Amino acid sequence: MTQHPNLHLVEVRCSSCGAAFGIRSTAETISVDVCSNCHPAYTGQARTLTSGGRIERFNRRRALAAA
Ligand SMILES: [Zn+2]
């Protein structure tokens, strides 16, 4: 009566902040780009990840126009 897959403790390592935590999974190793430790939604430091480029250029143009 064991129909569930073989779960074991896996160490998940975050490639952004280096945090490691264990979960139960069938995978051997897991690495993630963002984790709950460093994701903008949790840290509140949004925008630094996504705004490189367009918004920055817009702000620069706006500063020039105001001057
Ligand atoms: Zn992280």
Integer tally of domains: 1
Mean pLDDT: 76
- Cα end-to-end separation: 74 Å
From the spread of the alpha carbons, the general shape counts as: rod-shaped
Query: What ligand species are in this complex?
Result: zinc ion
The description of the largest β-sheet is: 3 strands, mixed
Nearest-angstrom radius of gyration?
20 Å
Low-confidence stretches: none
Query: What structural class do you assign from the helix and strand content?
Result: alpha+beta
Neighbour order of strands in the largest sheet: 2-1-3
Order of helices and strands: EEEHH
* Percentage of residues in strands: 15-25%
> Helix segment count?
2
Helix content: 25-40%
Q: Total number of β-strand segments?
A: 3
Oligomer: single chain
Fold and architecture overview:
The chain has 67 residues and is α+β, with helices and mostly antiparallel strands. The protein has one domain (8-66). Helix content is 25%, strand content 24%. The chain contains two helices and three strands. The chain has helices spanning 40-43, 54-66, and strands at 8-14, 20-25, 30-32. A three-stranded mixed sheet has the order 2-1-3, with no helix packed on it. Strand 1 and strand 2 (20-25) form a beta hairpin. The termini are far apart. The mean pLDDT is 76.
Give the SSE map.
Layout: E1 8-14, E2 20-25, E3 30-32, H1 40-43, H2 54-66
Parallel strand pairs: 1-3
Antiparallel strand pairs: 1-2
The protein binds zinc ion.
